[in-house]
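Justification of computing resources. Each target in the renewal requires a structure prediction run like the one illustrated here; the chain below, 246 residues long, is used simply to show the kind of job we budget for.
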Amino acid sequence: MSHFPFQRLQADLAIMIRQSPAGTQLPSEPELAKSLGVSRATLREAMRMFETQGLIRRRQGAGTFVVGLPPIIESGLEVLESMLTLARRTGLDVSPGPVTIEKALADAETAEALEIAVEAPIIRIARTMSADSRPVAYLVDMLPAEIIQPEELTNPTEPFAFGKFDGSVLDYLRMRGDPLTISRANITATNATSEVAKMLEIQRGDVLLQFTAKLFTASSKVVDFSYSYFLPGYFKFHIVRRVDGA
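Resulting structure tokens:
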């Protein structure tokens, strides 16, 4: 299919979705493909954009449903804040999903980022964040083992643990009193791997917004290396920049 007909297909789907109330079940994939005169593979590819925008949701064995306009988390990037802090400040209902906390050994990339030896012990913390009853972000943090231990986050006898760790490593370290100063992040578009797609309940290869970041203390020590994956339709990031010479 040429580029123009594919754009027309997306436009037709956009009209259909926009005119359907939230909760509406769309026709089955074979029915929709036949009515639009396209193959199921082409239809599936076109539908991906609307799913990552949060406008529709495909449920295995149930069908495809219109979600409506999703809640938007909007923030500037000049000051580092956790996703939970942003949500609370804007009045959005965001909650962490199940948290996986495990001991691991640093691979070459993680070791370089954390400025530690390859195969040095680290703690890996992975979890989703949900809004509007669906996962919209997948966050993975890796910290040197001397910075934090799993028991500190999961043992209710520990002073900062259980109920106080709400899924945000940044908020937890700040609450603990760690002297954090800056974060350096690379922001890119990426395609969902099998692991990320499973956690976000999307298709492998779907486009996501990815932040790769390092968190520093006042002594310039790297205490956290993280990957954050966001569904584009639920987030709007901006940055305010001063005009040179102004």
